[in-house]
Sequence to fold (205 residues):
Amino acid sequence: MDASLSLHPLIAAAKLRMRKRRIAFALLLLLAGAGALTFALRPSGGQSSTGTGQHAQSSPALSHIVVPVDSYERKWRAWIESNTGYGISRSSALVLRRKVVRITNQTGATLLRIRIWRKASPVAVEVALATAIDPAFYLRHRLGRLVTSLGGHATYVKVVDPRGSRIFEWYERPGEGMVGVSNALMMCSPVQAIGAVNPPPCPAK
Fold:
């Protein structure tokens, strides 16, 4: 028998094995690519929106809290309602509203209610917030962003904890203002009250 003819079956078998390996390798690449795509499309890890502590963000878990309108807020509203003028347009009020919502979220609080009094003079902003962040830390390091952003407006801001208890309350209008915060947190507050009695240092560094 011709030796070259006896090698043909071996060559055919080798080619078949090589073809199978190529197909298997192609399938492996396809599966690997699909796995990488699945990983890329997965939501990234990190803090949950309902987390607590200093990294807490706006949380749906806090949105159920009801903050009643108290005597200070009613007094502020009464003045606002009696001082109306030309005000600002609806579109400008919407821009202001979006700004307040964005900054509130950035501070790590959940906005419970908001009202823009666009016909007041000056334009007034009324908000109630809830946060699960440590009260001292929130007042010292977070709330100031919102307070600063509201400069130039008549303002009412109330912040409560997850139980609905007041952490901070502040209103301001031409000629009058009020700050409601415990003596223990007074030095953490971004708005200082006049006449505080020997407040201790803020516990948040």
